[in-house]
User: Fold this.
Amino acid sequence: MKTSQNGFIAWIQDLFKDERGSTSIKPVIALIGSLFLCITMLLNSYTHEQFKPAPELVNAVMIVTAIGMGADSLDKFSFKGKSKEETKTEIEASQE
Assistant:
């Protein structure tokens, strides 16, 4: 049971790392924004209409969250593509 917990904790830690293996702020911002949106929507379901947040505020948090998730995904894919290209170039240079 301990190995599965250690594996899960390592997986969670890897979620917050960038393509180089260091901790990145983009997934943290995306997680906090997602939690904020989910909690806000849940609380809105049980409160009166006078307590609801402004739609502009909800949209702003949604945009920041989407940008955080998109930027993190883009970074991961772009770095892998660069490393493959660099590896191919190095292999071709060594063959000559």
User: Anything to note?
Assistant: Residues 25-95 form one domain. The chain has three helices and no strands.
